[in-house]
């Protein structure tokens, strides 16, 4: 739709009042044109709607090809913002949403890879498909005015040069703003240490607006110069605190001077998580006086019965006591004279020798060899071989192998009862070892010799065998030169004893005793097999006498297993 308007002064005079001045005529002419123009624009607004590009969240403006027809009172817009990268939105928007009414989010500037900034942009236009060309301004480095804008006219109408942030985008050269420098952040510093040693605290990092700093009215850096995050440490220890003192107890004396007391407890709060216990005493005493007493001298009670002898065998001590309470001294009376404790020697009888540790205690100069002992629980008499040289002596040997003359591939009953010769190679027997190791805290020692003559040892504290029929091995991790890592004796800890006729290992597919040609506390299956086949020392055979942590699967030359009370 096209409208052509043409007025001449003569036509205007013919249609106007005759009696007006020249200036009034000019004003009426202008007002007439304005009214007609407004009428035509109203018709255009009702008849014609804008067509705008319409896309959401595109990375490249040129990728937007779809369009939409706007409603009346709408214009085209383009928005540029960023999250992790820069995105563009195109479409229609109410006229009121443009200009000063556009809401600019807090995050208005994105940092580009070259260190510069990309500003948030929200611009509108009112011609068909005009919005793709919005938010395009010359870079600060080029300092060129926007060719589509008459900077002089815009400045005269809207004083655009007074708004530095807008003027440097549109008319930087005209407004003499080529020297304006927007601020840019320096890189973030490293995170600080957590500001607490326990519980929840804060770590922080800083940056400065110095890369470069803003100059000549340029934008300050957006966002904050300090960043923080929560850091978590272990829970804080809880240090104990005293409760209030309880009331004083009654004076224990009915007359004279006594001692009364009161208590408090470390429960306010109770110490927890390795916190300090309360310092000070939980009991407080004070003198009390219940009035003068009559003078009473003290007198002894009768002697109590003799206590039990301090030992069950050998020479010990017995004691008995009496008290100065028959009567108690009162009112500055004299205390009892003499002793309140009587002591004498006792001798329940000779002590039985229960293991090599007892032999060493009774015979300091005892040599290694075979000794008679009486088991402490069953009272069974038996012979054992004692090692009196290794590590101060006192060791009861229960396995010794060094030449292969004794076959160790035996059934379960033989391993329970023992076999071999105490003078050469032997196995003492699970029944005896279980009882002797249960007499008190016991340590286990292994002495091993490789084919080349290298000797090593390994000690294991808290050695215990479970009861029959499993005789489960229980030891602490070892210390010594043989080693006790993943392939040491601790691999077999917690397992029952197995033989070729009694399978109690953890391998469901086969009998480890048969596979290893031995008898042992097999797991699944073995890394230690000291009761395995005796072959030429240094041979690589899983079925042989091996200790993998020390010598892998190469057969050993000698093996000695022994225990001692500690």
What does this protein look like?
By secondary structure, this protein is an alpha+beta fold. Among the domains are: 51-136, CD59; 181-235, TSP-1 type 1 repeat, CATH 2.20.100; 356-565, Gamma Fibrinogen, Chain A, domain 1, CATH 3.90.215. 14% of the residues lie in helices and 24% in strands. It has nine helices and 25 strands. Strands 15, 16, 17, 18, 19, 20, 21, 24 and 25 form a nine-stranded antiparallel beta sheet that branches. Strand 20 (442-449) and strand 21 (455-460) form a beta hairpin. It is flat, with a radius of gyration of 52 Å.
Which key phrases capture this entry?
9-stranded antiparallel sheet; TSP-1 type 1 repeat; 24% strand; 4-stranded antiparallel sheet; disordered N terminus; flat; alpha+beta; Gamma Fibrinogen, Chain A, domain 1; 566 residues; 25 strands; CD59
Structural class: alpha+beta
Helix content: 10-25%
Averaged pLDDT: 86
Do you know the CATH topology of the domain at 356-565? Gamma Fibrinogen, Chain A, domain 1
Number of helices: 9
Overall strand count: 25
Name of the top-level CATH class of the domain at 356-565: Alpha Beta
What proportion of the residues form beta strands (DSSP E)? 15-25%
What is the CATH homologous superfamily assignment of the domain at 356-565? Gamma Fibrinogen, chain A, domain 1
Topology at a glance:
Layout: H1 9-14, H2 22-47, E1 51-53, E2 55-58, E3 67-69, E4 74-82, E5 86-94, E6 109-111, E7 117-119, E8 121-125, H3 151-158, H4 164-170, E9 200-206, E10 226-232, E11 257-263, E12 283-289, E13 314-321, E14 341-349, H5 356-362, E15 369-374, E16 381-387, E17 395-401, H6 412-417, E18 419-420, E19 426-427, H7 430-437, E20 442-449, E21 455-460, E22 464-465, E23 473-474, E24 479-480, H8 512-516, H9 548-551, E25 558-565
Antiparallel strand pairs: 1-3, 2-5, 4-5, 4-8, 6-7, 9-10, 11-12, 13-14, 15-16, 16-17, 17-19, 17-25, 18-19, 20-21, 20-25, 21-24, 22-23
